Amino acid sequence: MRGYNPPHLRFDGMSQAVRSGDFVVLSGQVALDASARIGTDDPYEQARQCFENIGLALAEAGATLAQVTKLVCYLTDAAHFSSYSKAKGEVFPVDGAPASTTVVVSALLDPRMLLEVEAWAYVGESSE
Residues of the chain whose pLDDT is less than 70? Predict the structure, then answer.
């Protein structure tokens, strides 16, 4: 198993992505940009940054967003779902979109974070 971390997403004691066999598994991504700032108070902009970070972490591991097979999103408010869904729809086409679960939680580690997105990517031989 090997860990991968984009330069602006390096933290002690964790990897942003880990390749294990035919999968790349990502830690939950939040709206941290290259300046290490939390994104705006806008759930849509935060979701866009989460997907950008997912793409960066996947690239470090030699994978792409097209290989994402599973997403899990943690929202701090159900009212943010439409913003998350809009950003997700801009990244993944309706046909072939990854399996997805969305959960509403009471809070995330930093109260400025409105959502967090985990991803799994399959990087093995295609089974189709």
Answer: 1, 4-14, 126-128
DSSP SS3 for 91: helix
Token code pair at residue 50 = 């989460």
Q: State CA 20 to chain mean position distance.
A: 17
Distance between CA 89 and CA 21 in Å, rounded? 28
Whose structure tokens read 């860990």? 3
Of 120, 121, 78, nearest in space to 103 by CA: 78
CB 101 within 8 A of CB 73: yes
Helices vs strands, H then E, count in the chain: 2, 6
